Amino acid sequence: MPDVFRSRAFKSGLAYAGLFTVSAVILFAVVYWQTAGYMQNQLHGVIDHETQTLVGAYHEGGLAGLKKAIGDRLESGNNDNHYLLAVHDRRLAGDLPARAAVVGWSRAYRSVQPGDTMADRPDDGRIPLVLRGTTLPDGAVLVVARDAQQLAALRARLVDAVLWGLVVVLLLGAAGGALMGRAALRRVERINRVAGRIIDGDLSQRVPDSGRGDEFDHLARHLNRMLDQIERLMDSMRQVSSDIAHDLRTPLGRLRQGLDTAREQAQSPGDYRPAVDRAIAQTDQILETFSALLRIAQIESGSRRARFARVELSALVETLAETYAVVAEETAHVFSGDIQPGVAVRGDRELVTQALANLIENALTHTPPGTRIEMTLRTRDGAAVVSVADNGPGIPADARTKVTQRFYRLEASRTRPGNGLGLSMVAAVADLHEATLTLDDNAPGLIVSLRLPIVG
Amino acid sequence: MTSACKILLIEDDRETADYVAHGLRELGHTVDVAGDGAEGLFLATEESGYQLLIVDRMLPRLDGLAIVKTLRDTGLNTPVLFLTTLGGIDDRVEGLEAGGDDYLTKPFAFAELVARVQALARRPPLQSEATVLRVADLTMDLVKRRVWRADRAIDLQPREFRLLEYLMRHADEVVTRTMLLEQVWDFHFEPKTSVVETHISRLRTKIDRGFDTPLIHTVRGAGYSLYADA
């Protein structure tokens, strides 16, 4: 299995973890600023309120009154609030040193006192303070301060939480990415192993389908359909090669035998004549088979499509019907035509002619004298349908799909002339024209239809 | 009935070239052979007086199509018969588009070649078409689409009319089955049934029955010919 960490899925997992981390950081920052800001505002509010109360006491009772008020507050034992009343840097009252007499907001630290009872005892023994100094009308400075230990502790906890959170998110992201990568890789690997076995020659292998219906299953199904198609093509190619070998060996053998016999038995040059004539006829038949095979291959290559043009199908079918009516008279068949005029298709005139001629000739050569053969041209649902129907012996249902295969011949027709390529050629022409070729039971007999798309 | 022609054969396969040249010379034609495309083009342009070119499609140095295109571009109108390979279904159209006049698929019967050579070499020059064809006492009016033998009117089906027209245009020549399939039916394949034979037989019944001299003759191993026994 290739390196998980180089897999696409792992990289995506990691990228998602990174993105998630950034989002988490932003979220934490917002929470941090909101919470810490709220607590700080509250702290300031308390200090402001206390300052106003004390300034009120000053206005009522002067410095003495204020001094008394501070003293009362300190004695009440509220450890969170601290005070200073200083005049000219000299402390008149309070528990803060005189150097803390700074006007406005400021920060400072105090050391831990024995009486401090706080939940979050600072590690360094220093407690942060927030102070507000106010100048009184007679020049004295009043400072109200409050322990900010809770705010500091909250800040520290938030920062810790953010850091730990980040570590966890990153670890989960990486682990998740690795797991996803492994899962995806394992399935890709399964496809690769199958591909490897197919390359090694086992075309029956198929990509497993987990049945989950996900994108890998879709891929697997497509690959399997492709493999089915390839296998079918390979099979038909093997079949065709062996058919060619077999179908040409027989007439070649017969040809050789005929020549051999002529050489042994001919007494005079004149005796050779019939043997030579027979040999030429047999050679022609072999060449005809070759030619038909090449023609089918060329039609299947699709290069003829470049030469497609409008084909007046009605006129073409009319000509064929007229021509084969004469031939049918000779073979004692009852031939009739029923042709809708004015129908045109796009295609290769020469090939359509040959394909339709093949259908008629099949009916003429594979049915006994007296059989009715009807050729029709009709338009149906935007398609031109040319049919050749007969009331002859027909073709068994299971053989109808096989007759378009190269060299396939019904047992009954093996003794008749033909190379078993006629319907293969028709099928190839149909494919080239994106037409459908159907063989049906005409009850009794056979009806072969070629459905071509119409042009206006 | 054969008039001697001067023919240029451009064919790289020695065996085919010898077979064709020998056969045509036996019939009294003069045949020059070029073994490749470049030599063929050189002879066709430098040597004058050829009445027919027989050109193989696949040639070393310069292929048959290119030769004929070049010749047609220089204004040379000598009839061209292409020889094409087995099963090359695009060859005919391409050959005709390049300026060829006829084609023959290899391998071919010699009689087939001779008939084609005759037809091409004796092709009448382009001129105003005659509207009435006459062979002996047989008359065909191409405008009215009517046919008479002596003073008896003969009723023909469209296909029979075209068949007879072709035979009359090529009177005294041998026309092969394949030529008739191509020219009369536009069939460029070998039918499994006797399309030509049955039509000829019907035409014979209509043209020759009741007359002392038959006009339609079968030429053994080659095809048919329309002529009055003299």
TrEMBL record, chain A:
Principal location class: membrane
Catalytic activity: ATP + protein L-histidine = ADP + protein N-phospho-L-histidine
Annotated GO MF terms: phosphorelay sensor kinase activity
HAMP domain residues: 182-235
UniProt-listed Pfam families: HAMP, HATPase_c, HisKA
Subcellular location: Membrane
CDD domains hit by this protein: HAMP (cd06225), HATPase (cd00075), HisKA (cd00082)
Domain Histidine kinase: 243-456
EC number: 2.7.13.3
PROSITE patterns in alphabetical order: HAMP, HIS_KIN
Cellular component GO terms, alphabetical: plasma membrane
Keywords: Kinase, Membrane, Phosphoprotein, Transferase, Transmembrane, Transmembrane helix, Two-component regulatory system
Keyword Oxidoreductase on entry: no
Transmembrane parts of this sequence: 12-33, 161-185
Protein name as catalogued: histidine kinase
Source organism (scientific name): Salinisphaera hydrothermalis (strain C41B8)
UniProtKB/TrEMBL annotation, chain B:
Membrane spanning residue stretches: none
Alphabetical keyword list: DNA-binding, Phosphoprotein, Transcription, Transcription regulation, Two-component regulatory system
One GO biological process term: regulation of DNA-templated transcription
Domain Response regulatory: 6-121
Residues bearing PTM 4-aspartylphosphate: D56
Residues spanning the signal sequence: none
Residues annotated as domain OmpR/PhoB-type: 130-228
Highest taxon of the lineage: Bacteria
DNA-binding region per UniProt: 130-228
GO annotations of cellular component type: cytosol; protein-DNA complex
GO terms assigned for molecular function: phosphorelay response regulator activity; transcription cis-regulatory region binding
Alphabetized InterPro entries for the sequence: CheY-like_superfamily, OmpR/PhoB-type_DNA-bd, Sig_transdc_resp-reg_receiver, WalR-like, WH-like_DNA-bd_sf
Annotated protein name in UniProt: Transcriptional regulator
Naturally occurring in which organism (per UniProt): Salinisphaera hydrothermalis (strain C41B8)
